[in-house]
Amino acid sequence: MKKNLYTGEKNPPNDENLPPNNESSKPGYLYPFSKEISGAEAEITINLASVPQGMKDLDISLPPLKYNKSLLFMLTQDDCKQSAFSMTWAAINGKPIDVSDPNKKYYYDVENLEAGDLPPSAYTLGKTLGSTDGFGNEVRFHFTTTLAPQWDFMRAPATVNPGYKENFFRFYMKAGLRWNNVREILNTGNGIAFHDLNTLALDHVDSLVKHFANAQKITQQSLDGRGVKFFAEPNGDKRYLTAAVRDPDMETMVAQTGATKLIPYQVHSDLNKMTFSRVFVNHSSEVKNLVINELAVDPQQRAAVHIGVHETDHEWAQFLMWLNDSYGQEGTDVLWFPSQEEYYEYNYYRQHADVQINRVGTEIKIKVKFPNRKNFYFPALTLNIPGLKKSMIASISSNEQVTGLTYGDFADGLSINLDCRKFLYDHADYYVKRYLSKRTKTNLEDARYHTGALKESVQKRDLLKLLE
User: Fold this and answer.
1) How much is the pTM?
2) How far is residue 329's CA from residue 337's CA, in Å, rounded to a whole number?
3) Tens of pLDDT, residues 364-421
4) b/e per residue, 62-82, with b = 16+ CB within 10 A?
5) What are φ and ψ of residue 98, in 5° steps?
6) Domains, the chain, with CATH or none
7) Which residues in 234-270 are b (16+ Cβ under 10 Å) and which e?
8) Separation between Cα atoms, residue 102 and residue 257, nearest integer Å
């Protein structure tokens, strides 16, 4: 498939009236990924009201998919498209999306969003899109956007002019995503990947490997140390894959052909350096059939649905809402929709984390030692304990390294979701303060969502009181 990357209407015609110059390129807030905990040691203490007669030693297991879901869905958006922010990310997170003439679509940047400077035809879906953690708590859909770190357009400023209506050139499609848009995409749990590299020496693997290192350096400089470990194959070019396998930072890959079909319930390795298959479709409606067909298969044989896309539009937003309504939080809730790097980390932890459970009388101790890995940002697991029910629990607590904790009955036992992201409270505090400074409906939804990710504590209750 031939394509002309990174093109767009960068500049308006010279003979038109230009809006006043009000440009912005100041770096926005970013979760401190570079300071994220590595090798976390989580401890959970469960106190039982009483020990049931004949209670046996407890076992603990880690399900193939987080939150005990049965269908893995992943979406990777190639070519560092601006619509990854103003359409894909916006639709999922309840922000305005464009519904204008498909031949003349409008786009915006995060600075426009924050200033309320939006295209004239923008509207919202009226809700955020996701599944639940199995216990009623929302987990929004997470996708992957590819980056183009070696191209200058990622550092371009944004033009912000609230109320200016003489023309809308500032909402024309730019050459691609800007770093500030990527920051906001990352803040909400999504992933990033490398794709094309800015080199003509495609026949020289050594050159590609050097360009991977250069792209990593630029990315870390632009994202305060946040690194990349996921590579999405461009144009079916296997030379890139050869180089990606050689690059020490690239741990998980995706390609259109010659790749491995991922069946989550049959995974018994850490999947390091493996390339998984994805499908490009002509229209979002085709994905519905892929989802429905896989759901008709027994979970033990069910393949992941991994979709590749370039440009997204209003129809894609409607498809994402269909996922939410049919198989997400407002449907059967069987769907886990992470980025590929989040899935890769979860499976890696599932294979290599040291998980122990021990009961002495009415006290149960669970210890989880996460492996120490570079560029890992999602230290979280789901734990299942057969034979234990929520009604048996008098209290549950955890050490400081556990920042998120939910639990409840599942199948014949208890299920626990634990999260050890170090700055989860600071992250929630940022969104609460953002709401208090600008009290909009969507800011309130974000503040409640990020605060809801915290485990029960005095600090969490104090944040929630600020939102009342």
Assistant:
1) 0.95
2) 11
3) 999 999 999 999 999 999 999 999 999 999 999 999 999 999 999 999 999 999 999 9
4) bbbbbbbbbbbbbbbbbbbbb
5) -90, 140
6) 33-62+353-419 (2.60.60), 66-346 (3.20.20.370), 424-466 (no CATH)
7) beeeeebbebbeebebbbbbbbbeebeebbbeebeeb
8) 30
Model pLDDT for residues 67-113, shown as the tens digit of each residue: 999 999 999 999 999 999 999 999 999 999 998 777 789 999 999 99
In tens, the pLDDT along 3-26 reads: 445 444 444 444 445 555 566 678
Q: Would you state the structure tokens that stand for residue 375, as one six-digit string?
A: 């560029």
CA end-to-end span of the chain: 52
CB 158 within 8 A of CB 111: yes
Residue with tokens 């048996």: 392
